[in-house]
Amino acid sequence: MADVVGLLVLAGLMVLTISVVPDFGIPTPFWFYVYIVLALICWHFWHSDKFPNKTKDWLWFVLVSIVLGAIFFGSDMMIGHFYYPDLPVVDAAKKNGGPFGFILTLVVCPGLTIIGLASLARSLLASKSF
What we know:
Radius of gyration: 16 Å
Shape: globular
Helix content: over 70%
Structural class: mainly alpha
Largest sheet: none
Number of helices: 5
Distance between the termini: 11 Å
Order of helices and strands: HHHHH
Number of domains: 1
Number of strands: 0
């Protein structure tokens, strides 16, 4: 039951993400594949001994992913503004390429944050005794 709740929370967070970032020009069917990949990653995390299973650990995972995402986004804005001074700072950050560019920022936050929140919800349900 906890896995189902975690996957439902993941789906809800994906719907929220799609509604917040519709201007990226990503086709809607692509998000289904993103959900499948994130669900498989979550499933692996949940059933592996190498990843945290405690609610407190997942809360730290979420907080660290948000902080790292903010740091990465700040560096993307600074580097983007350096290379594209005529663009607004956020647009310049989006143009920041390379292996540590804007894509990595999106993987960390919201990517890992969504995984962490779904895992946190699963962990909360799994820790309750019914």
